[in-house]
Cytochrome-c peroxidase
Amino acid sequence: MICKNNIIHKRNLMSVLLLMSVCLFSGVVLTSFKAETATTNRVAGTVQESLIQDMAVLKQQSQYLTETLESSDQEQVAVEQLQGAFYEVKQAYKKVEYLVEYLDPELAKKINGAPLPKVLIEEANYQTLQFQKPSVRTFLPEGLQVLEELLFSEEVNQDMRKDAIVLSYSLQEAISLVANSLHHQPLTDKQILESLREELIRVTTLGITGFDAPAGGREIEYATIALQPVLNASQQYARTTSGKAKAHSSKAVHQLQQAVLYLQQHSDFETFDRLYYIRELADPAYAALTALQQELLPTVASVSKPVNDHANSLFSADFLQAAYFAKQDRKEQKPELIELGKVLFFDPVLSANSERSCASCHVPSKAFTDGQVRSVAFDFNGTVQRNSPTLLNAVFSNAYFWDSRAVYLQDQVPDVLVKSDELHGNYEEVVQKLQQSTAYRKHFKRAFADEPDNSLNTNTINRAIAAYVQSLVALNSPFDRYMRRETEQLNASAKRGFNLFMGKAACGTCHFAPTFNGTVPPRYLESETEVLGVTVSADFAHAKLDEDPGRAGVVPADAWQHSFKTPTVRNAGLTAPYMHNGAFATLAEVVEFYDAGGGAGLGLDVPNQTLPDSPLNLTAQEKEDLISFMESLTDTASVFLAPERLPQFPKNTGLHDRPIGGRY
């Protein structure tokens, strides 16, 4: 897991934290344990009984940890004893993780959430009322990961022990809230089957990467423990079902047994073969559990959540549903709407001078970037503030732009269209211009056939362009085809690189599979930003911190100073230069920066850096392998997507001969 620095808790926060735990739980529990109409069968009853027993053990272990920490505050208790008590809690949590995190993900964050400060925006109207500044409150992180960083520091002093006591009390309270509620909340097959599949995703994308083991190690051991209840529940289904359900559950049992055995036999974190584990063991187990759920509880495909319940692989093209991430049009888009969006995307008519289009900065042949350090500004008046990120697979996020200021794809369009250094447009003028084209009016009527006659307006322009960007999904790279077993061809360097990416190099703890961006598994409902301490250039011998405030320029929170969205590394071989400021010209320079420990590792003052400042100590071959893996994520199927022609305008408008994609 990415280490988070400067986490300090004071004893007088204890009562506040406990009160927040109670309030949070009371608000969440009503929706977390909503009863299903389906009858709970023997499997659900057995699973619930085991869960209650395991939660009782977790509760006892958390109490023991608190008592041990309190003793250490009064007398000299060896750090090893504190660490041992912590391990017992962490192991006990892993046994219940699959259902606790499924039933109550918000409360689970208080138990084992990422050690990131939580920034609460109290005045959210700043997004619509531009004169109003956002008001924020920052809450320090808590839970097992924060405790782990404290207890496994190089030196655990008395102040750190006191901070750990506060954290342990909050942890104990959160665990008690979950444990006490389980006696009165029956489980259903739907909850169990979905939680099993989620846990497989969690172990595959987070567990074996060390995401939630930031300091104490034992990553593979924890993954093994976390998979055991998934195996146990699958065995229950194999014993109590028949026909196709029995066949699917039996296959799941077989794959999970092999997965657990492999984890037990290969417990070294750095040498663990993640590629083999995922492709040969975990992914087939996921497919079997998906088939089991569809057999027992058949459902129609729905875009009500990011993960497709019908997908049988993490690397299926339909594993994540692009339609979920839309705003107004949360559905599969009509071809007519996508086609209209494509035409608008490449048409300079949207800009004030009718010479610049969206495609000016997002060129298909460059994976929808422009290859510039910073994109050229309107009328060649210098450059814009940042680098143009790729639009391929950009849909898989709930935060857009480098500073995450837009929540939906659709919200990006007006920001670009009206911005003075980008398209410098005006919606009223754009609508008036488009109305002059008979071809455009017909385009809009076809795309919005079920809308009122005035379908050519600000909203429909935004929706059309967003629909086109939503369609820019490129998940058919050589790596994807290999993981889907469509081919056996993947070079050895890329294979080694994937294992490094998801292991020693820790890339996969921020660039999460399968999108390899910052959208967090297993539900893919939130997208992270990170503080890397990005430098102004690749001159690391004379490193200087880039002054761009990043997300803090939108929301003035100290925790977000220099924080930027984690982009996808898919198609990274085509999207140089890299970082928000284009500081690095090659992937080799990017790898060198991370290998050094980011800005803080280079000696810069970055107190809130979320990247570990310790060097990765990658060898020259390992660096080459990492780059080989990232290059294996290239999918150029969407390169030649420009329209053949643009809609015609009357010659007297001066818009008749505008070029596709604009003049610059």
In short: The first strand starts at residue 118 and ends at 121. Residues 1-40 have pLDDT under 50 and may be disordered. The chain is about 45% helix and 0% strand.
